């Protein structure tokens, strides 16, 4: 209990900036090499600025100036992790923002002053002949007059960098978490749809087979049972798949429609119109079955009339989009408008989550038929597809 209590109260402030550097350069020696190269480049730029700035003659050469600038910038680089740690410890966006701001102000002044003392010592130590001309006090006054504001602002710029990268890091993590949660939600919706459709479909199919046996249609019952077995086998094999090819989805739909035809032997007619070159498109698993079941539930077939179901798939245009349509005719005397049932609702939601708004489902009643049209971006199906996003 004491151990857990201590762990719960312990808090270690971690700099988001330093953490991102570690992630970008996991190798320690490479990371130190990149840091060294960065401050070396800054030193060269600073040397060029001071060398060619019109301030009169300098008492030291180019190499002495470069060496001096390299030492002072490396010193600033050495205290930068400390400033980042302070920024991570006293974050301004927390509830205690005003207290943290006062702490940062209180710490920024002595830290900047100590650095300027070190700056002065390094300049004097680096140019020995200056020791006989300028002692510490006038040199320190010169450094204060020229560099105090600059490095004080550099302190707050480093604090701002830590907060900006911290905001970015947390935003990216929340975005990734949201994406994962949406993927899990889409998977849960798909699983729930399977759980709702399969028992209902199995119950009706088994009743159909029982009826065939009672009517002494044993051969037809055997063929129907074989088709059902094949459908269940494919369904189990693909139970964990998020994506499949349109070819496999069409094969699954044909088996499904064969079983529906056995259930409605004189009332169902199916027409297929699938263009070449679209069957290898990646589509969500269990895409067509809810649309077909919706045809049976609300169309002419489901009301003991001769019904026609049309399934088509074509490339819509040259922008890499395919169009899949499922059409069923409505009863002639029916005045009801077929709407979006549970299956269509789930399909629409899954398309939204899987394609991030790049897919569209349109359903409408037109000329005595109910038409569901899916517009999907064409992506080549690959067996290794496992994530809830289609790669561009």
Give a short synopsis of this structure.
The chain is of the alpha+beta class and 392 residues long.
Number of helices: 10
Give the H and E element order.
HHHHHHHEHEEHEEHEE
Distance from first to last alpha carbon:
52 Å
Shape: rod-shaped
Spans of 5+ residues with little confidence (pLDDT < 50)?
Answer: 1-12, 387-392
Task: Please state the average pLDDT score.
Answer: 77
Radius of gyration: 36 Å
Which structural class matches the secondary elements? alpha+beta
What does the model show?
The protein has 392 residues and is α+β, with helices and mostly antiparallel strands. It folds into 2 domains: 12-176, no CATH class; 217-377, Heat Shock Protein 90, CATH 3.30.565. 61% of the residues lie in helices and 12% in strands. It has 10 helices and 7 strands. It has helices spanning 2-9, 16-24, 28-52, 62-89, 97-126, 136-214, 218-237, 246-263, 289-298, 342-355; strands at residues 243-245, 268-274, 282-284, 307-315, 321-329, 360-366, 369-377. The protein has a 5-stranded mixed sheet, with helices on one face. Helix 7 (218-237) runs antiparallel to helix 8. The protein is rod-shaped and about 115 Å long. Mean pLDDT is 77; it is low at 1-12 and 387-392.
List keywords for this structure.
disordered N terminus, single chain, alpha+beta, rod-shaped, disordered C terminus, 392 residues
């Amino acid at each position: 209990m004491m151990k857990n209590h201590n762990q719960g109260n312990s808090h270690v402030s971690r700099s988001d900036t330093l953490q991102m550097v570690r992630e970008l350069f996991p190798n320690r020696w490479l990371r130190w090499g990149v840091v060294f190269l960065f401050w070396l480049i800054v030193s060269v730029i600073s040397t060029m600025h001071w060398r060619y700035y019109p301030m009169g003659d300098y008492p030291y050469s180019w190499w002495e100036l470069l060496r001096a600038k390299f030492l002072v910038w490396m010193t600033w680089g050495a205290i930068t992790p400390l400033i980042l740690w302070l920024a991570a410890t006293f974050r301004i966006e927390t509830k205690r923002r005003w207290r943290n701001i006062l702490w940062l102000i209180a710490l920024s002044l002595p830290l900047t002053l100590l650095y300027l003392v070190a700056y002065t010592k390094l300049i004097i130590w680096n140019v020995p002949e200056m020791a006989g001309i300028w002692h510490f006090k006038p040199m320190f006054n010169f450094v204060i007059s020229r560099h105090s504001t600059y490095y004080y602002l550099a302190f707050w710029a480093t604090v701002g960098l830590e907060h900006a990268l911290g905001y970015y890091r947390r935003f990216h993590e929340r975005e990734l978490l949201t994406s994962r949660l949406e993927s899990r939600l889409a998977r849960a919706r798909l699983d729930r749809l399977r759980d709702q459709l399969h028992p209902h479909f199995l119950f009706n199919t088994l009743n159909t087979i029982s009826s065939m046996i009672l009517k002494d249609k044993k051969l037809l019952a055997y063929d129907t049972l074989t088709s059902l077995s094949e459908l269940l086998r494919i369904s189990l094999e693909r139970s964990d798949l998020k994506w499949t090819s349109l070819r496999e989805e069409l094969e699954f739909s044909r088996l499904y429609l064969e079983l529906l035809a056995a259930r409605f032997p004189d009332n169902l007619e199916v027409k297929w119109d699938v263009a070449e070159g679209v069957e290898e498109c990646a589509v969500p698993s269990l895409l067509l079955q809810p649309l077909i079941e919706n045809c049976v539930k609300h169309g002419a077939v489901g009301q003991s009339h001769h019904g026609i179901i049309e399934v088509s798939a074509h490339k819509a245009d040259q922008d890499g989009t395919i169009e899949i349509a499922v059409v069923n005719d409505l009863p002639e005397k029916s005045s009801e408008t077929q709407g979006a049932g549970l299956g269509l609702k789930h399909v629409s939601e899954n398309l939204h989550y899987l394609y991030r708004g790049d897919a569209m489902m349109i359903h409408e009643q037109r000329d005595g038929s109910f038409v569901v049209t899916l517009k999907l971006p064409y992506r080549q199906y690959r067996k290794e597809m496992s994530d809830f996003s289609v790669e561009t």
